[in-house]
Amino acid sequence: MNMLLNSVKVRFLSLILAVMMTLGLYAPVSIEITGAPEKSGNAVRVVSFNLRCKDDVYGKVENRGMFISAALRNYAPDSFGVQEATEKWLSILDSELGESYARVGVGRDSSKNTEYSAVFYRRDKFDLVDEGTIWLSETPQVAGSKFFCSSMPRICTWATLRNKQTGEIYTHINTHLDHLLERARVCQADVLLSKVGELANYGPVVCTGDFNADEESKTYAKMTAVLDDSRIVAKASESGKTFHNYGRGDIVNSSAIDFIFVSKGTEVEQYKIIRDTVENMYLSDHYGIMADICF
Questions:
Q1: How many CA within 13 A on the CB side of residue 5?
Q2: What is the maximal distance between C-alpha atoms in the chain?
Q3: Would you list the DSSP string of 190-239?
Q4: What is the pTM of this model?
Q5: Which of 56-65, 123-132, 283-292 has the lowest mean pLDDT?
Q6: 3-state class (DSSP) for residue 67
Q7: Residue 197, Cβ neighbours under 10 Å: how many?
Q8: pLDDT digit string (tens) for 202-220?
Q9: What is the dihedral of CA 66, 60, 254, 77, to 10 degrees?
Q10: What is the pLDDT of residue 4?
Q11: Is the dihedral of CA 159, 160, 163, 169 positive or negative?
């Protein structure tokens, strides 16, 4: 009973603080994220993060942008993919991380609040070999196109990166599949995997994103027929949901729906769910995820 009461108190306090921050009545004294694990020198660290595109009572974008930027600085990924990244989000990340990271990607449509599935990569470590965005539709090269069963246009963005010191190449693909229909996600996964096959000609592939599908879904089965789930193959790993709805729970998605897939046979040292908070306030309605990969 005491544990339940303490949990309720923490959630209530978090909500009050978030509301105060949204109203400009409160700001954390310091924003410090210290949860990043050690990484071996040979591994490539990849992160995926659904940012939650808009302000809500649980967190204003400007505030959460500072939290997530702090987390990314601490985890120091070699490349990372973001979902629900609006122009406002990209402006914050460019301002906070632009000296260290370059990015690629375009918006999925021409709307005012269009979202990007951008890929960021370390400027000091990699040269950009190739980049692009396609639409997950019957006409992938047509901007704004979508399957008839999809709720909106969906895209994947990629960056093919060459290590400046070793010459090693890998491609980071990032996406965000439909949130309503499994049929749409399966169709989108087919287009995505076709592009994965093309980009594999460069070398190993990492595919990150919010797939809006759990491990029991047809979408997951389709993805893992071609790629490995880093969480499953990692030497050190952990399990749990990745969409938590600001700690309010989610009955439908009680397991992971965000994934880092890798080329079959790729060695993954560790997989981690980024559950960090700032003064008990969540960075997003999703947890970020991280994998250390050896190509």
A1: 2
A2: 57
A3: HHHHHHHHHHTTTS-EEEEEE-S--TTSHHHHHHHHHEEEHHHH-SB---
A4: 0.90
A5: 56-65
A6: helix
A7: 11
A8: 999 999 999 999 999 999 9
A9: -20
A10: 47
A11: positive
